[in-house]
Amino acid sequence: MSFKLEQPVLAVDVVILRVRPPRLEALLLPRPDEPFRGALALPGVALRIEETLFEAARRTLREKAGWPGEAVQALYLEQLATFDALYRDPRGRTVSVAYLGLARSTPTLFPGGAWQAADAIPPGGLPFDHEEILAAAVARLRGKLRYTNIARVLLPPAFRIEELQAAYEAILGRAINRSNFRNKLLKLGLIEQERILLEAVGRQGGRPPHLYRFARARLEAEERDFL
Fold first, then answer.
1. In the chain, how many H helices and how many E strands?
2. Interatomic CA distance for residues 28 and 14, integer angstroms
3. Is the pTM higher than 0.85?
4. What angle do CA 45, 97, 92 make, to 5 degrees?
5. 202-210: which pairs have CB atoms within 8 A and are 24 or more residues apart?
6. CA 105 to CA 102: how far, in whole Å?
7. Among residues 13, 61, 100, 109, which one has the fewest Cβ atoms lying within 10 Å of its Cβ?
8. Contact 43/29 with Cβ under 8 angstroms?
């Protein structure tokens, strides 16, 4: 008895998130082809035989979003999960490995691209299983925010505590007590004071604001959940 070897497609989909307080935003691009032509969706490509999954994720942003190579190289990317529902793609059996990307500054998009609030996309608003992929990406980021210094890739090297809190609130989707938040992060050694922003004091005087920075340049985990 002979068997026909089926060849499912292996795809890579990328969720790019950025913080624009009070929103956590996701990158969506219009689909150029059927199915769902014209619909906003997560960018993705089929894996080529000569590339790794990570390389395919980077190629997705160059080809589909139009980002220059240097911007793609600088982007934080990590593998998220594999999505293998049997009928996730009407064209045939397709398995997708999704990546989560975090962007501080973003290049200009191809025409039709959009940044949309991750929590404001209505049910059925994305094709395929992209809502499930987006939800998994947001959950991953929220989880890591609670026990790592991952917020450092979303903020400039030096920032005011109000900027840091706004980023945390946009990602978590809830308010945070400012005093407790600052004191806890300082006590943990997650952030440290860089300098006093004397130039921000106006004619009315007042206390000059402080600028902070993350104490560690690499992504690191704390011993416990700190939020």
1. 5, 9
2. 10
3. yes
4. 65
5. 209/160, 210/160, 210/161
6. 9
7. 109
8. yes
